[in-house]
Amino acid sequence: MGFKGRDIIAITDFTPDELLHLFNVAKEMEKYSKSRIELLKDKILALAFFEPSTRTMFSFQTAMQRLGGSAIWFSRAEAISIAKGENLADTIRMLNSYANAIVIRHKYEGAAAFAAEVADVPVINAGDGSQHHPTQAMIDLYTIWREKGKLEGLNIGVLGDLRYGRAATSFIYATSMFKPKKLYLISPELLRIRNEVRDYLDSKGIDYVETTKLDEVIGELEVLYVTRVQKERFPDPAEYEKVKGSYRVDLKVLSNARDDLMILHPLPRVDEIALEVDQTKYAYYFKQASYGVPVRMALLALVMGGVE
Amino acid sequence: MSKPEKELIVSKIKNGTVIDHIPAGTALQVLNILGITGREGYRVALVMNVESEKLGKKDIVKVENRELKTEEVNKIALIAPTATINIIRDYKVVKKVKVQLQDIIENIIKCPNPNCVSNLPREPLKPKFRVVERTPIKLKCLYCGRYITRDDIARQLH
């Protein structure tokens, strides 16, 4: 499989077989996610977080250390000082000369693709604006694959901000690669999927519906991917107040859920999943978060040549 | 009464460019692309919504004493993909080219998404788009993935 030296920009750059190969390696990595396997000894990973993140950055750092390598990083505070006069291209050139691979998060869409043009070493996109978050999508799919034992033929719901949410968008792309039985896209009208995403679904022949009502489709779902609807997205705060209750997952709405429903969330969660849901059999989001390290270990090892 | 095209409205030009087969109603945008305001002093003829065998209806632009640069022809292709460019010298057509819309459009227009990396200042970066649809034209930014429509293009091509 051709992972070595490759840039990881969008989940759609991969074939289903490549992702399954990644998942098999990740499953192996689970054994070492609290210890160490010396696959990337003497390798250095640069983490360029122009936008703040703790979870993604820590999980990449942890993954790199568990593989016997090391990481150098900056996050937003240092990025501000870098930004004093230095452009993105020069920052990437500098990191390119130090490290064996670069992970980048940036608030501008396309930043990772541009960084990949500038760098010779592989560039991994850890989120670019509202566009892509491919490593999150890999973790999301991996969770379904591990916990349900299959990826194809599922009834999948995606809830929240489907227009600007990069995790939700990448998940929609990712799940569409594995022939869902039906895709339920649940969001306020204002935050429906972008046209280019709609065209992608059409081109793949995906059976999907766009709806504003979670309670009307909850009984169908085997997977529900939850993201937050942000107040700031609404031009009128009153509009937000009107709809916010409809996008909250609690025991009441779950009373009609299937027994085998799996709820996922990329985290951090605010109030879109009630705390009471954590104790139910549906809650898989903490399990999902725990897969972050082995999946990123597998990806780093594949891209940096630690495994084939 | 409509007359045959050759005798229609404007006379031949001696030297310059005739842009023919412009989609009906877009000649003003073509003039815009060329930066022609009419205050330049040379003769410009604009014919709109005349009969065309190929297109049903079309527009024509004639500009005296000006030959188009490749860069201008590429821009015209975005807004008038059916257009033909005739270079006229001494009343004769010396060169005739059909505009060609490339599959990848590079460094001609900007991405309208303000949050696209291609709009960051001081980066060594050329905006790039893939042509998704030709009629009506629809482009996809190769950086941010957003679609760019004919209206977005028309707004900035001048």
In short:
The complex is a heterodimer of chains A (308) and B (158). Chain A has 308 residues and is α/β, with parallel strands linked by helices.
Give an overview of the whole structure.
The complex is a heterodimer of chains A (308) and B (158). Chain A is built from 13 helices and nine strands. Chain A has 308 residues and is α/β, with parallel strands linked by helices. In chain A, the strands form two sheets. In chain A, strands 7-6-5-8-9 form a five-stranded parallel β-sheet. The model of chain A has no long low-confidence stretch (mean pLDDT 94). Chain B is of the alpha+beta class. Chain B contains three helices and nine strands; from the N terminus they run βαββαββββββα. Chain B has helices at 27-33, 70-79, 150-156, and strands spanning 16-23, 44-52, 56-64, 84-89, 92-98, 104-106, 128-133, 138-141, 147-149. In chain B, the strands form two sheets. A five-stranded antiparallel β-sheet of chain B has the order 2-3-1-4-5, covered by helices on one side. The longest helix of chain B has 10 residues, at 70-79. The interface between A and B is medium-sized, with 22 and 20 residues.
Topology:
The complex is a heterodimer of chains A (308) and B (158).
Chain A: H1 16-29, E1 44-49, H2 55-66, E2 70-74, H3 76-82, H4 88-98, E3 101-106, H5 111-118, E4 123-128, H6 134-148, E5 155-159, H7 166-176, E6 182-186, H8 195-203, E7 208-211, H9 214-217, E8 223-226, H10 237-243, H11 251-254, E9 262-264, H12 285-290, H13 292-303
Parallel strand pairs in A: 1-2, 1-3, 3-4, 5-6, 5-8, 6-7, 8-9
Chain B: E1 16-23, H1 27-33, E2 44-52, E3 56-64, H2 70-79, E4 84-89, E5 92-98, E6 104-106, E7 128-133, E8 138-141, E9 147-149, H3 150-156
Antiparallel strand pairs in B: 1-3, 1-4, 2-3, 4-5, 6-7, 7-8, 8-9
